[in-house]
Specification:
The chain is of the alpha/beta class. The protein has 12 helices and 11 strands. The strands form 2 sheets. Strands 3-2-1-4-9-6-10-8 form an 8-stranded mixed β-sheet. A 3-stranded mixed β-sheet has the order 5-11-7. The longest helix is centred in the last third of the chain and has 27 residues.
Amino acid sequence: MKASIIIPLKAVNDYLREALPYHAALEGGPYEIMVLPDEALEKEIPAVRVVPTGPVGPAEKRDIAAQQASGEFLAFIDDDAYPRKDWLANALRHFDDPRVGAVGGPAVTPPTDSLLQRVSGAVYTSLLGGGPHAYRYLPVGRLREIDDFPSVNLIVRKKAFEEVGGFDTHFWPGEDTKFCLDLVKKGWKILYDPDALVWHHRRSSPLKHLRQVWRYAKHRGHFARRFPETSRRLSYAMPSLLVLFLAGGLLWADGPAGGLYVLGAGLYGAALLLSGVHEAVRHRDPGVGLLVIPGIFLTHVAYGIGFPYGFLRRGLAQ
């Protein structure tokens, strides 16, 4: 079983320099490491295949890499992520089942990240912030079959990749959701294994975090209209319903139903506080617990507005 580790990026950066020794130390070979920057490098990187692609998006870079990869498995990982040494071995063992087309695993916030990065990660790992998708960011849970997973940590059988035609380059982000849907429609199984773990750096500021959330929300909303099989789900619409309740309730808070509004807003506030306490204990850092409270609220607002925006927009791609 040979794997091709595929890392799309614009240019070589400090995150990639940090990650390469972890890739070099992986168990479960043989494998090759492919790095896809926009431009050719002045200096070669030892034991790495560098494939210049020009200024194209991550989906195009992954498709280009797949065409040139020598491995029968394509291990997609982002440039700001690095693997645990057993990542590849734990993922590849599942491909003994010929029905398995892809395996994903958690993308965990490194403990060395800054406070604001760890707060960003805590938003996603909290039950109130990440909801039923929080497992994607935590090394917990069980082996399960799934139908949607991000490409930050996704290992794909090359045969399955070619069968569905690779990534749909009209979309970013969201190309991985469309790709997983295509796999499932072709009859391939996608598995989640909590032991196929990578560490993934989070956004370094609240503004960058919210911009990322906004992009995810508007594309998920667009997908809810165009590809409802995996995107028209209550969990994705909940932040929009929350925003509608909180904003709309201000118009009738003094009316007969005002008590219900106060009760609902109070319960949400209590849930925010409990999430802060839980994340403070999980991270052993009261600063994370304190900042995750406004972080979850602002994430809900950004996602809650972005989702219907994407749903109503026609022709939304990038």
